[in-house]
Amino acid sequence: MRRTNLHGWLLLLPAAVLLVTFTHYPTVATLYHSFFSTSKPGRPTAWIGLDNYRSMVEDPVFWQVLANNLWYALATIPLSIALAILMAVWVNGKIAGRGLLRLSFFTPTVLPMIAVANIWLFFYTPGYGLLEQVTALFGLPSHNWLGSRNTALGCLVVVTVWKEAGFFMIFYLAALQSISPHLTEAASLMGAGRWYFFRRVTFPLLMPTTLFVLVNAVINSFRLVDHIVVMTKGGPDNTTALLLYYIYDVGFKFWDSGYAAALTLVLLVILAAFAMGQFLFLDRRVHYQ
Fold first, then answer.
1. Can you tell me the mean pLDDT for 212-226?
2. Which of 88, 121, 163, 195 is buried most, with the most CB atoms less than 10 Å from its CB?
3. Which CATH number fits the domain that encloses residue 111?
4. 172 located within any domain
5. Overall pTM > 0.70
């Protein structure tokens, strides 16, 4: 019995070492450093307790960035998931050019994030960008899409949904193909319409996939940096600055590692709260086959 237990623990050891090294230790180290000041020439780091967190509460940029991130998450998560389901249902049917359609939907996913940002930067360019060319056909005036407070964050939302929906579609497509065709046949014999069948049968069976996709969508909505660096650099007036980008700014542009550690811990707490809420409230609605 002891040999069996030892063998099992030895098999888990490589994964456990990686998990502790790259997940648990960085989390504990971040918590530890958040209670210290940032070392500077002639002034070593010192224990300051909760001063970094007090500074955070008094920081108006932090609250603006947090609000930006919440609005960004509320927009990208449902739109990406809804579009992914729609595309998966479409390409799961027997239609002409189905393979080409699947490829076109999935292509944005495999593109590098910097390349995607540069593509959409051209689309949004005032005067001669693709979006400007389309709006000019309807007689609309030129608009600085990324330079306006009213449209800059929405432009980032569009880019994110365009890139993520195809990735989520793959999971939904695999889930749809695992549903027994006998359910469809039985529903058609009973006269159930397509919308009724999707609402009462297909969508409940997709809930395990939806839970998985939702967790990934929430994480993705709080880890965007690349697009912001290329497209807006947080502007105009911090309108497009999200939490992880602000951490990057504080830590690597202003070299305030203590405050950056405190901000990182807040980000980890937010993600943990979202994850716990998803599993506690959505797990009851999940139907596993």
1. 91
2. 88
3. 1.10.3720.10
4. yes
5. yes
- CA–CA distances in Å: residue 141 to residues 71, 132, 134, 135: 27, 9, 11, 8
Q: What would the pLDDT profile of 138-148 be if each residue is shown by its tens digit?
A: 888 888 999 99
Residue 12 in domain: no
Give the C-alpha separation, 159 to 221, whole Å.
12
Bridge partners for 43 per DSSP: 40
Residue 83 domain flag: yes
Nearest to 156 by CA among 104, 112, 120: 120
How many Å apart are CA 141 and CA 143, to the nearest integer?
A: 6
pLDDT at 157: 96
Predicted confidence at residue 267, as pLDDT, reads 93
**Alpha carbon distances (Å) from 130 to 136, 145, 258:** 10, 12, 43
User: pLDDT tens digit string along 14-24?
Assistant: 899 999 998 88
Residues sharing a CB contact under 8 Å with residue 215, sequence separation 6 or more, in sequence order: 275, 278
pLDDT of residue 254: 87
Listed in sequence order, the residues at least 6 apart from 204 whose beta carbon sits closer than 8 Å to its beta carbon are: 285, 287
- Among candidates 129, 155, 149, 144, which has minimal Cα distance to 227? 155
**Number of domains, the chain:** 1
List, for residues 53-64, the tens digit of each pLDDT value. 999 999 999 999
Domain with 270, as residue range(s), is: 60-285
**Would you tell me how many other CB atoms lie within 10 Å of the CB of residue 254?**
11
CA distances from 44 to 36, 37, 49, 140, 264 (A): 10, 8, 15, 58, 22
Residue 5 lies in a domain: no
